[in-house]
Amino acid sequence: MPTQPAAIEVRKVPIHSVSDASELTRLIDEGVIRADRVVAVIGKTEGNGGVNDYTRIIADRAFREALVEKGADAATVKEIPIVWSGGTDGVISPHATIFATVPEGEAVATGEPRLTVGFAMSEPLLPEEIGRRGMIEKVAAAVEVAMGRAGITDVADVHYVQTKTPLLTIETIRDAKSRGHDVFTEDTLISMDVSNGGTALGIAVALGEIAMPDDSDVLRDRSLYSSVASCSSGVELDRAQVVVVGNAAGVGGRYRIGHSVMDDALDADGIWDAIRSAGLDLPERPRTEDLDGRLVNVFLKCEASQDGHVRGRRNAMLDDSDVHWHRQIKAAVGGVTAAVTGDPAVFVSVSAAHQGPDGGGPVAAIVDLGDR
């Protein structure tokens, strides 16, 4: 059953080095948030974004240790969803967006829908389930739990679902084989796309965007997608870590979230549409200064179009053996996004299979609607 959620304070902070959590501790020291009220962190680290991107593990440890040092319960901190997307290619700047509940009575009172966050962990995901129905079903179940914890009853009020799931490694592939199972792929880098794609389909099923797909649809039928899924994978965990972000009436607070999609890698209008969806009034042809400092952050997924074209023009990303297309498309979309926001600290993540239309991707935006 849905619970009554608390109002949310959300802040974006820079990360000055791989193991830096100083801006998190500064927020706590200044009383902006309390360590024991942090409920989620979503951020970008400066590693290679691949299977062996251990900057995610280093950043995860730094933030959890900082919360414990500032008084949060260690066991509770261990369960906080902290989702790191590796790779700050191009102008993208390492940063973290921190979500914390506001003590009762301290939130801005309003009857308008405001930001709410819920989180859940799925049942353990076996390596043979990654990219298959077992993963889709377990992710869908976790999304429903997270929605309930966010106090969201209408799927239309869900605007962003950020996940972290396991990808395949040599060790987990060996484990599956030892138990008589095969896996979707034995290419560990491709397994990132597999994990993200299977997770996105689970989100789409939970939110009623699609019917339950077949195993054969994963990474093949790109017409099946979620418009709010943002899926990341790595070696840090063996379950799906799910953060549902949406709006609910009665929670109060200053922040609101909206979403849209980019139809392709150059679709800046899709980013502006997400900001409008969050409730910010913008002119027909907006400029960065129209944001007036009210944009907290945007969260995007991106993908090289399967046909190797953008707006009818051929590109060589999928054929490039020197620089993987993951890094190229991330840098390109990061530049487009930063040109809109005027801030390179944007959450742009690659491997967007089943997350938005082919060659594009979902966009979520959080804005501050509080009085100045």
Give an account of the 3D structure.
This protein is an alpha+beta fold and 372 residues long. It is built from 8 helices and 14 strands. The strands form 4 sheets. It has a 4-stranded mixed beta sheet, covered by helices on one side. Strands 5-8-6-7 form a 4-stranded mixed beta sheet. The protein has a 4-stranded mixed beta sheet with strand order 9-14-10-13, covered by helices on one side. A hairpin with a 2-residue loop joins strand 11 and strand 12. Helix 4 packs across helix 6. The longest helix has 18 residues. It is globular. The two termini are 36 Å apart. The model has no long low-confidence stretch (mean pLDDT 96).
Name the poorly predicted regions.
none
Number of strands: 14
Our count of helices gives 8
Describe the biggest sheet? 4 strands, mixed
Helix content: 25-40%
Name the assembly state: single chain
For the biggest β-sheet, the strand order reads: 1-4-2-3
As a percent range, the share of strand residues is: 15-25%
Shape: globular
User: How large is the radius of gyration?
Assistant: 19 Å
**Average pLDDT for all residues:** 96
- N/C terminus separation: 36 Å
Structural class: alpha+beta
Order of SSEs? EHEHHEEEHEHHEEEHEEEHEE
How is this structure best summarized?
The chain has 372 residues and is an alpha+beta fold. The protein has helices at residues 22-29, 55-69, 74-79, 133-150, 170-178, 190-206, 268-277, 325-341; strands at residues 8-14, 38-45, 82-86, 95-101, 114-121, 158-166, 229-234, 241-248, 255-262, 295-302, 309-310, 313-314, 347-350, 361-368. Strand 11 and strand 12 form a beta hairpin.
